[in-house]
Amino acid sequence: MLKELEIRDFALIRKLRLPFTCGLNVLTGETGAGKSIIIDALNAVLGGKVGPSIIRPGCERATIEATFEAGPEVNAWLKQSELYDESFDGLVVSREISKSGSKARINGTLVNVSTIQELRQKLVTIHAQHEARTLQSSQAQLEMLDALGDDSHKKLLAQVKTSYARRKELQEQIEEISLSEEERTRRLEFARFQLSEISEATLGECDEDEKTAAQIKVLSNVVQLEAALAATQQLLSDGDGDSAPSAIDLLQRALVEMTAASSMDVALTPACEAINSCLDALEQENRTLRKYREKLDMDPETLSALEARLAQLATIKRKYGPTLADAVARQQSLSEDIDRLENSQLAFDDLQNELDKAETQLQTAAESLSGKRKKLAENLAERIKNQLTDLGMMHCKFVISLDRVGNEGEPAECGPSGLDRAEFLIAPNPGQPLAPVAKIASGGELSRVMLAVKTIFAHADSVSTVIFDEIETGLSGRTLQAMRDKLAQLAVSHQILCITHQPLIACVADNHIEVSKHQTSDDTTISADILCEKDRLKAVAGMASGQDSQAEALKFAAALFSESAKLRADLAR
């Protein structure tokens, strides 16, 4: 449900904040006052196409923010889309239009317009003259029909969707392995060649290339290493007598002196121990260096072998990498590809058997679903016809046609919704042929069909807010009264936003918004006010007579309100 709409610098609106309630919200005002601009702003914030021309003259940008009360289905969509705000019990959709483009946000998160439009389908239905979006699509009409089905109907529909998905999955698997023998042989030989090339490399550790490169660096500098180690050992332990004692010799002398000193003063014991530790460490490192020198490989062939191995690994990485880990993974996948190609015929037969079973299950469920839809279509068509009769279309014909999906003369192709394609057909007047509802020329007729359908589907429709823009155009008398009754009935289960010029409809509103245009010599602005009961009486009187203070007009308006109160009381029972 729409709770609030805030508009800034949009067309003729400078700043406007409108609260909405549940039930019937009517927007009234003189022709050209700007009522449709408010609906245009709501359409824009919900992903409608707008350009910089709608920005109020002299402003840099236009902004619209709509606050909704989110139901379980909308909250589930928000969570799935990672747009749910746990700190806020609701939904805020905003859009900023500038001269360079527009930005849309859901609960503060920047999203693309297509995401807003997906959410829109769960929030509102906007119906203006000659615009029946929910009646223009065969798929939408089929979904409306299915929405009236019982639990067994919905179970069959779910079974059709599941079987269709399984059939599609099996068809894709069969298509993947359905190769000509020549193509299969070509792929098999190429996979075997690649696997052989990787296997010959005898890949082991995934960092072998790094370790090999390190070894090559050592062997490439083995002469320098040997010289540096020899000099280091000479300084550590192989000194030249008293004239040039080694580091170990000097530490041993120092240890003797400190041992004697610490025997005279225990405070020197730590120093003695530190020298002893340094001596032990040097002797240990000296032994380590000796072993390292003994293992140094001076053979040039070892270096050549390592360089050849590194080049082999580089080739493997270039072809199957970019890393050795990728090459190892590729080796595994090639083995699986070879196994699949070698056994493709066996796999094909198994998949084909599964596909045949899935096809049978799909066709059986779809045929049963078609039978249920036929009964539903007959019932729904009769109910819509009755509603249209109440709305003044006593002589119309209304039929819901169910045709099989596919081209004429060819077997029906079962889709995710079954075998059927729905079409709502109407002949508004005697002698007219049946034609699709979406092609009706009369806006008044289209409005009445829309209202009839919405009334029937009030409890099945998941969209909670329905918007009608001058739905009563071309209606009067008893037909207009019938439309008022239908709107009031629909407002019991839905939030309705209705632009109207008819006092008969305005008097049954739960929330009455009056839109006004204000002009000066150089500026035009639009305002809107929520009317109290006293002001509503004047407004309805003005709609009826053009004067909001004339006694007869006020008396007539009071009578309308009295009648509407009785209607609403009856609906509340």
Q: Could you characterize what this model shows?
A:
By secondary structure, the chain is an alpha/beta fold. Among the domains are: about 1-125 and about 465-573, P-loop containing nucleotide triphosphate hydrolases (Rossmann fold, 3-Layer(aba) Sandwich), CATH 3.40.50; about 210-320, no CATH class. About 55% of the residues lie in helices and about 15% in strands. The protein is built from 18 helices and 15 strands. The strands form 3 sheets. It has a 6-stranded antiparallel β-sheet with strand order 2-1-4-5-6-7. A 6-stranded mixed β-sheet has the order 8-12-13-3-14-15. α13 (about 345-390) packs across α14 (about 445-455) and α17 (about 535-545) packs across α18 (about 550-570). It is elongated and about 135 Å long. It starts with a strand and ends with a helix. About 25% of the residues are buried. The model has no long low-confidence stretch (mean pLDDT about 85).
Please report the total strand number as a whole number: 15
Number of H- or I-type helical stretches? 18
User: N- to C-terminal separation?
Assistant: 23 Å
The CATH homologous superfamily name of the domain at 1-123 and 463-573 equals P-loop containing nucleotide triphosphate hydrolases
Low-confidence blocks of residues: none
Structural class: alpha/beta
**Can you give the helix content as a percent range?**
40-55%
**Side-by-side strand order of the widest sheet:** 2-1-4-5-6-7
